[in-house]
Amino acid sequence: MNKARWIGLALLAAAPLAGMGDYPLHLIILCLLWAFVYTGWAVMGRLGMVSLGHGAFLGVGAYVVVMGWNHFHISPWLGLPLALAATAALAFLIGYPCFRFKIVGHYFALVTLALSEVVRLIIIALRDYTGGSLGVTPKTALAKASWSLSAMQFSSKLVWFYVILMVWLAGLWIWTRVDRSMSRLALEAISQEEDAAASIGMSVTRLKLGVTMVSALMTCVGGVLYAQYQLYVNPESVSGIGISLQMVFGAIAGGMFVRLGPTVGAVFTLLLAEGLRLTIGHDIHGLDATIYGLMLVLFIIFMPKGILGAAIEAYEKRRRAPRVAPA
Amino acid sequence: MLSVSRLTKRFGGFTAVNEVSFELARGEILGLIGPNGSGKSTTFNLIAGALAPSAGSIRLQGREIVGEPANRIAHHGVARTFQIPRPFRRLSVVENVALAAYYGQQERPSRENAFAQAREALALVNLPAEDSARVDGLGAAGLKKLELARALATRPQLLLADESLGGLDETEMHQAADMLAAIRAQRGITIIWVEHIMGALMRIVDRCLVLDHGEVIAQGPPQEVAHDPKVIEVYLGSDAEDVQATVAARTG
Description:
Shape of chain A: globular
Low-confidence stretches of chain A: none
Mean pLDDT of chain B: 89
Shape of chain B: globular
Low-confidence stretches of chain B: none
Helix content of chain A: over 70%
Oligomer: heterodimer
């Protein structure tokens, strides 16, 4: 199993060198980027904290860096820590009161849903700086050169592929670290019996805030990378309900309780989105969000462990079942 | 070690606990009794920090702990069980208890030590400590024991045990009562025991505190309380003779 994992990774890392076209490579990069973001969402989502507002953190990441670069000439490398600080502040602002006053479950989801819309509306309201709903491109540093390290802009997709591959691997590592930590057990306990958890000394607020921070900061990094890779962001694509719902759907569809679940979810949502785009086009506005919503409901009812979770379960069941003797 | 003074809790216009005062010496087992709705559980929740009192003071070894949150009070050395067991069902039995050992003590142990201490606590209450043991496999008696093991794993100085015997049969009940007595003997833990089942309680406790309508109507050793006319009137009723016999058997 371990060997298979390394071979798979080597194949993935070598794939673009085999002379892949720009479009497939672009899809793989987006897959890995969204896989990282969904993994970040699942870090807290699997522990009973279902956030419908992670678009807020994505938006803060993307816009803080692009605004810093366009208006103040701050390198994205400096913009990144600023965006992380802003995200941490926002996550604290929303998380602390929720956790302190035991806003959980559906109520927590509603509060976070509002958060992502607030961020989207702020971006639109500041249209003189942000370009409003038309979106904005970071000022190009690629006029004379094919890449600029200080501007975090690279025209080569290959560079982005390896950068985002590393980030995705880091995301899986963080997921594993959280999965094996005492905090994960504690938060599972809290999601089941909060009063009992407090009675044995757990600081519910602090534990929840900790994992929320990890999740929000990962999402913020995803937003920064998205903006720098696409060199274009608009409020719809990095904040608001649509993208927030897509994250939830991707993580749940793939399977939020297994490490590669959100990655499978990213492949799934991307294929779905591209498929829709190629067959129906952009004529019916909001169709993808509608389909995400519908499928989310179906998944929660019929496959709560997601595609990968259900597949692993079926595989283990078959392996454990006694072999049927041939007739 | 514990000094409760004029503890009061009002829910709107209703006074659930009215100026309750009592003292508790180290190593003592105090039985907290009274009819339904007399304020036993509320008193208990006030001490454990699950509820914030409206007035009054709770001092643990001279330190005022009133109004502190439940998790902080756990760190001061107060552990509790719940009337209706509240296990973490999706975790294993050992994990349930290990979390208490990890988060419940003032000095946080390593993960390995927390699991080792959890196995000790499980052994103390005679529960299986294998990694594979699931909460779903435990019956009513097992769940009560798990509550107790989880509380003990925080290494408390004061244990608040809430109606730990409801739902058990006669033998299980006596075993559980003996277990509390053994825990006190082995670990020197002070215990406040809220219990409906008088027979089991009267055999073990050093002292009783009787509540009615949120007020203390009697307190003292079991033999006194069992013969107190006020207690017989509001609480013991027709069971008075049985309870008196239990107490007599114990002292005699």
